[in-house]
Amino acid sequence: EVRLVQSGPEVKMPGESLKISCTASGYEFAKYWLGWVRHMPGKGLEWVGLIYPGDSEVRYNPSFEGLVTMSADRSINTAYLQLSGLRASDSAMYYCASSVGSTTCLNNWGQGTLLTVSS
Amino acid sequence: DIQMTQSPSTLSASVGDRVTITCRASQTFRGWLAWYQHKPGKAPQLLMHDTSRLERGVPSRFSGSASGTEFTLTISSLQPEDSATYYCQHYTFSSGTFGQGTKVEV
């Protein structure tokens, strides 16, 4: 069974940094693209980007480039989403999701990590 | 980048109704269109990919189709558990644009 387990909810101050983790099991982590999706309160889903854990190749949504950094550690089947210089507008639920298959649709999702940025 | 325009933004229907949600793409592309169901407090769930390929375990009342730049999700007989927000997504190896979402109230 494919499982993605994300790190827990976070409360941060403006200007701080954060690294959300996403630990995968039940499939060959290095072989399939993994995506990140943002869901702001009351808004729609936003595609943040993709990472291929096999070689850490990344593809960013231009709207998020420079604002987030995706990385992966194949040795522990874990992907990361780093956000720096946090602002209140970064407050959202962040999901990781794998694309186990030949394309990049997101067929297995983590439970989400809720980020609250507040002074 | 291809933009996806989804409609309607909300719809209210009764149990047993046939409902249709549409996504229109800004350019033609072949096939790589997915539909997700998102319920409050839960992670989104992939319903189908490649326009019409249903995921395992998804009820057969859900179906997908395409005509030109217009992609359609149809629920043939709406059930109470179908209350959710539905999103289309055009996915490639370098992008993954979501539609704006359609909130379905049963």
Shape verdict of chain B: globular
- The counted number of beta strands of chain B is 11
Classification by helices and strands of chain A? mainly beta
Query: What is the CA–CA distance across the termini of chain A?
Result: 40 Å
What would you report as the Rg of chain B, rounded to the nearest angstrom? 13 Å
User: In DSSP terms, counting alpha (H) and pi (I) runs of 4 or more, how many helices of chain B?
Assistant: 0
| Most strands sheet of chain B | 7 strands, mixed
Mean pLDDT of chain B: 96
Uncertain regions spanning at least 5 consecutive residues of chain A: none
Strand content of chain B: over 45%
Q: Could you state the oligomeric state of the chains shown?
A: heterodimer
Give your account of this protein's structure.
- The complex is a heterodimer of chains A (119) and B (106).
- Chain A is mainly beta and 119 residues long.
- Helices cover 0% and strands 50% of the residues of chain A.
- Chain A is built from no helices and eleven strands.
- In chain A, the strands form two sheets. In chain A, strands 2, 4, 5, 6, 9, 10 and 11 form a seven-stranded mixed beta sheet that branches.
- Chain B is mainly β and 106 residues long.
- Chain B has strands at residues 4-7, 10-12, 19-25, 33-38, 45-49, 53-54, 62-67, 70-75, 84-91, 96-98, 102-105.
- In chain B, strands 2, 4, 5, 6, 9, 10 and 11 form a seven-stranded mixed beta sheet that branches. In chain B, strands 1-3-8-7 form a four-stranded antiparallel beta sheet, with no helix packed on it.
- In chain B, a hairpin with a 2-residue loop joins strand 7 and strand 8 (70-75).
- Chain A binds chain B through residues 33, 35, 37, 44-47, 50, 59, 61-62, 95, 97, 99, 101, 103-107, 109-112, and chain B through 1, 32, 34, 36, 38, 43-46, 49-50, 55, 85, 87, 89, 91-101.
